[in-house]
């Protein structure tokens, strides 16, 4: 979420609504049919390879409209996280990284409390949510699977290729950016980068403000990028932190 350029936002202000954020409904007619499925079908038709088409359709059966891919309720991708589901209106079902490659982590600040961010992401009218929220006390809650596309960046391409992490606090309050939050977020980001082979640099770990077309300023001027990146790199080379769940 985070503050906007034009005004200071709140935890219910939204961060990825509109066509750029892919806010659901008619803007996301591909909710259950991935881009790769369409490309595969078109290629198969073009070359007339019926066997390829049949095999691919069999493998991608769950993307047919009305069919849900079976998943285990409450499974998290980061073992140190607790699960609280976001509203279905605030994200789009996908099968990343198979249909959309993941090559970026985007850092946000909530412009509100931890509880208000959770409440906002559970609200279907909010039309935005991140995959994770990190509290000032270091707790981590996952609200959207990394498989899926969260509406958080205000830019559809960046939504599809990134994992979004909110941080509890306000951009104009440096005291909100606690040691516990930096450390927990760094471990989380290091785990995400390891799962998707994302380089540990500022081209691939960015702030919401750096997303093209955004009107938000988070994580703000008090976010210490040098400190954060050092913590991420340290976490990546230390004893393995809690990582991905192997469940569906």
UniProtKB/TrEMBL annotation:
It comes from the Bacteria. Residues 1-29 are annotated as: Disordered. It holds the Pfam family Amidase_2. One of its GO terms (molecular function) is N-acetylmuramoyl-L-alanine amidase activity. It catalyses: Hydrolyzes the link between N-acetylmuramoyl residues and L-amino acid residues in certain cell-wall glycopeptides. It is an enzyme of class 3 (hydrolase). SUPFAM superfamilies: N-acetylmuramoyl-L-alanine amidase-like. SMART domains: Ami_2. This is N-acetylmuramoyl-L-alanine amidase. It comes from Streptomyces mutabilis.
